[in-house]
Here is the input.
Amino acid sequence: MNAEGEGVSGMANENGDRFHTDAVPREAPILSCRELLPGLMLYRIQDPFLASCARPGQFVNLKTPDGFLRRPISLCRIRPGEGAVDIGIRALGAGTRALCRMGCGERIDWIGPLGRGFLLPPRSNQGTSDDADRPDRPLLLAVGGGIGIFPLLGLLEEARARGMGTLSVLGFRDPSQAFLLREFREISDRSLFASDTGGLDHHGNAVEAVRQLLSDPSVRQAVGKGGLRMAACGPHPMMKAVARLAEDLGIPCQVSLEQRMGCGTGVCLVCACEVRRKNPEGGPATDYVRCCREGPVFDAREVVWE
Amino acid sequence: MSAPGMPADIAVDLSVDLCGIRLRNPVLAASGTFGFGREMAEVFPLSSLGGIVSKGITLLPRRGNPPPRVAETASGMLNSVGLQNPGIEAFLREELPFMVAQGCAVAVNIAGAGAEEYEALVERLDRTPVDLIEVNLSCPNVREGCMAFGATARGVESLVSRIRPRTRKPLAIKLTPQADSISETARAAESAGADAVSLVNTLLGMAIDIETRRPVLANNVGGLSGPAILPVALRMVHEVAGTVRIPVIGMGGIQTGQDAIAFLLAGATAIQVGTATLINPTACQDVVNEIASWMRAHSVPTVRSLIGDLRLNP
Ligand SMILES: Cc1cc2nc3c(=O)[nH]c(=O)nc-3n(C[C@H](O)[C@H](O)[C@H](O)COP(=O)(O)OP(=O)(O)OC[C@H]3O[C@@H](n4cnc5c(N)ncnc54)[C@H](O)[C@@H]3O)c2cc1C
Ligand SMILES: Cc1cc2nc3c(=O)[nH]c(=O)nc-3n(C[C@H](O)[C@H](O)[C@H](O)COP(=O)(O)O)c2cc1C
Ligand code: FES
Here is the structure.
């Protein structure tokens, strides 16, 4: 096991958050499954160890029934009380299609938790989540699109448990493609769902919806002493636009990047993400770092966007 | 236990001598699939292995190729990492002390764009606690050097004779399966003073996304590894072991103790586990344990007795 998570991202040190990782393969049974949409499954999987130490934004690397390499999947909800975690899988290629055909009682071979997840400010010691109007309560705005919304659900749960205010903006191509709306509404003090074709709260994309939400006077008022931070996960263009908006508004923002992976544990270097880093040897100002180890969650300001 | 063989608690001797280096067992972690050992040291004690081989090291830091750098293939994978590494100085400062503290043999894999770079690298490694220098003349993922030397006997001979005088460390020359003749490149390495040969490195391959009509890898091509290449690697190890007198380090698709034993029988003195670690982080340790249990089950007291003990059909 490992303790990392300090000193890399600009937001890392404020509360000494650490991310435990574990790469010993385990088999874990599927407790329940729910088809969210055709080709989109939500699984609850029993793994008390994982549930006890994983943090939102971390991922597992799991074997598919016939694939060769493992496939990385983000943790959606982490339920230490039940010794279980939820993951959502979209059938994209052969590997994820086979995973989506798995049913209750079947066992998944996985390793995890892996990677660095989202950083949150320390649990507030002055109050509980009931203090909804406390002026110094920090706020989290989660912005997601497509399957990128999965890790944000667990993140919002953690944020609320830490006494933060929770806001969410989700973007979908079409209302028929939307999922987990009830869950996001429940875990958010304010939520705004956007669809490119209309039919949800906002007609347009997630980035426009973020602008709309942030211009709302009651939200502006809620951004008190505790400040606002953002977290984004979704399609690359969406995260890029959210990162730019956050930078323009001076709001700290974390993004969860995706890269094709091999090991997921940091040994093979295939999962390169380009970030701005100080290079002790001189050399270029940007560097390839491992999505699976230094990421998948990065401070948006250090990401080199294509 | 009623099965024939030795009782489970009888110690079997897995140790081998690899050009003067005593290895606890013949299993090494292959270059590029084990980092510098840090991540896997959290998974199992590296002292349970014969040794670990570093990621390929160059004189200066290298960024490597743009992503995507990986594609899955039938029973294998393509990679186009492109020798991303921190450079020799940072490696010696930051990584080597950790590697030598693990209690197993340490090999450093080196790669250069030209003969001068290889010379400088072996000179720099000469007075370090490294047990073995593995000279990569077979990386398919960089434009300059490397495989250009490994493809022909003449290239191997000229490169090895230039670096040989510059270090007293044992040199293992890592050969490409894409040489004109691998027994000739192996022989060239031997006659130029190599202490061992390592084979095989990856085979150059390609994967195409037919929807986008583009190669999957940003680099267009990459090195094929994993069980897909095992039969080719095994044949080459057999051929080379029959040609040279120096020890052969065999690799290519090894996932189990049984696979490893096949390489030993083909003539390898030690073996490396590469891609298997990416799927199963404990693969190297599992291979050690599986070799030992196979030996017990077959009443083979020493692993050395397996090396080259292949009985060819008449
Ligand atoms: C950190 C991380 C977290 C992820 N979390 C989730 C999640 O919670 N739920 C989920 O459904 N998916 C998630 N993914 C994406 C998932 O890993 C890929 O969809 C999966 O690997 C594709 O495998 P396949 O065999 O189905 O597809 P393949 O047959 O390998 O490829 C089919 C298609 O998928 C694309 N693809 C392949 N591998 C990846 C990859 N690693 N990332 C993105 N696209 C890829 C290919 O470009 C191709 O178009 C995550 C990826 C990463 C890196
Ligand atoms: C991701 C990856 C990176 C590699 N990097 C190196 C390297 O830096 N130097 C080297 O000599 N071989 C490198 N190799 C080749 C392996 O060490 C090994 O020779 C090859 O993969 C065949 O063994 P395997 O099938 O067990 O993986 C790499 C292989 C992989 C899969
Ligand atoms: S996937 Fe192997 S280093 Fe990240």
